[in-house]
Design a protein that fits this description.
Elements (H helix, E strand, L loop, with lengths): L1 H5 L41 E3 H6 L1 H18 L2 E5 L5 H17 L2 H4 L5 E3 L2 E6 L13 E6 L21 H13 L3 H11 L16 E8 L14 E4 L5 E5 L6 E5 L4 E4 L7 E5 L1 H6 L9 E3 L12 E3 L2 E3 L6 E2 L13 E2 H13 L15
Parallel strand pairs: 1-2
Antiparallel strand pairs: 2-11, 3-4, 4-5, 5-6, 6-13, 6-14, 7-12, 8-11, 8-14, 9-10, 9-12, 15-16
């Protein structure tokens, strides 16, 4: 398995296309490479969308936001959200807490929480170079889904089942709770842009599942020698959409399918980067792409001496929901499929063929 993972720095996404549940004709190396003479797009600007229009602009403002967001999603699948109502200081506290989380919890305390599948999602701790079986990502990760947070005041909730140190549940729950009110406005705006009933997914996305991922990219052991391969492989998210508070250290790159060049995305502090995933491409009948992105090594020498962190929140639906092409978007290219079958068959590329499950295993919230 280790040799196969190490070979991932030279392989392309098309080597694993049999796992894809939506059309992905683009071809790219999983890892950045100086030898590949990769091309960069310094002209395309990722659109900034003002959520103040949605929250404070009345019906006209909601229409403006919907058109701006939908256009950005259809053009490239990424947007930058501003005036979203979350205090930037909360992002700063979360970043500091994430550093503390990875830098103070020893390996022996992490091992009992090694990732395993719960429902659709592989949850728990991923050691460095082991976040997938197809590429040696230079990142440690930890994934927590809704069941790992006491958001719903469950009387049987036990933080120790998910957290090596239970106090961190409340610390990270503050951000997760703050992001929940953004889910419906984003989905309603996208549906309105597509000409659908904007409330079509309201029930599915109320108290819905999500994946909150903590990413810790340690500084290279020898900053004078640039490591081979990228920090995180090129990939597309499997979800409806992802909220990513703008990282303070560069690295995020987005593939522009129109010219097959990489865009270096540098969002302003306090903003949220939004991107659509495979669920969205499937239900939009390929109209809204699940856009390829990766995390590269930093260009600045100073950034090579410090760790990079990020904390994206991926929005899913529960395992027993059905994903089907939205009405009014033409002849469906894809048949209806349960979320658990779609999700696990897609992500089996990262975790192995036995990760995929059929649609009969759909226990809500397992």
């Amino acid at each position: 398995m280790k040799d196969e993972r190490e070979a991932g720095v030279t392989r392309t996404n098309q080597d694993f296309s049999r796992y894809d549940q939506v059309r992905k004709p683009q071809s790219y190396r999983l890892s950045e490479s100086a030898e590949a003479d990769e091309a960069f797009d310094d002209e395309t600007i990722i659109r900034t969308c003002d959520m103040g229009d949605w929250f404070h602009g009345g019906e006209a403002g909601k229409t403006r936001f919907s058109q701006a967001l939908g256009s950005a999603m259809e053009e490239i699948g990424f947007a930058i959200l501003v005036n979203h109502g979350i205090d930037g200081a909360l992002f700063e506290r979360t970043e500091a807490t994430l550093h503390e989380f990875f830098e103070t919890i020893p390996e022996n305390e992490r091992q009992p929480y090694l990732a395993r599948r719960h429902g659709s999602v592989n949850q728990g701790y991923f050691p460095i170079r082991e976040t997938s079986i197809i590429h040696p990502d230079l990142v440690e990760g930890w994934v927590f889904c809704r069941r790992a947070f006491n958001l719903d005041d469950r009387p049987d909730f036990d933080a120790r089942a998910f957290w090596p140190r239970p106090d961190y549940e409340a610390a990270f729950r503050e951000l997760v709770a703050a992001e929940q009110p953004l889910i419906l406005p984003v989905m309603q705006s996208i549906l309105a842009y597509l000409g659908c009933d904007p409330h079509l997914y309201d029930d599915k996305l109320t108290h819905t599942n999500f994946g909150f991922r903590l990413n810790y990219y340690p500084a290279p052991a020898n900053p004078a020698e640039r490591p081979s391969g990228g920090r995180m492989l090129g990939h597309e998210d499997v979800d409806l959409f992802t909220f990513l508070p703008a990282p303070s250290v560069e690295g995020l790159q987005v593939l522009n399918r129109r010219n097959m060049k990489w865009i270096r995305l540098d969002a302003p502090p306090g903003s949220i980067i939004l991107n659509t995933g495979d669920y969205m491409q499937r239900i939009s009948n390929d109209r809204l792409p699940s856009t390829t992105h990766r995390v590269s090594q930093p260009r600045q020498a100073e950034a090579m001496h410090r760790a990079r962190v990020s904390f994206p929140l991926a929005v899913y639906v529960w395992e027993d929901e059905i994903l089907e092409v939205l009405p009014g978007l033409g002849e469906p290219k894809y048949p209806p499929v349960s979320a658990i079958a779609f999700h696990t068959h897609t992500t089996a590329k990262y975790y192995g063929d036995d990760y995929a499950v059929d649609s009969s295993n759909t226990a809500h919230g397992t």
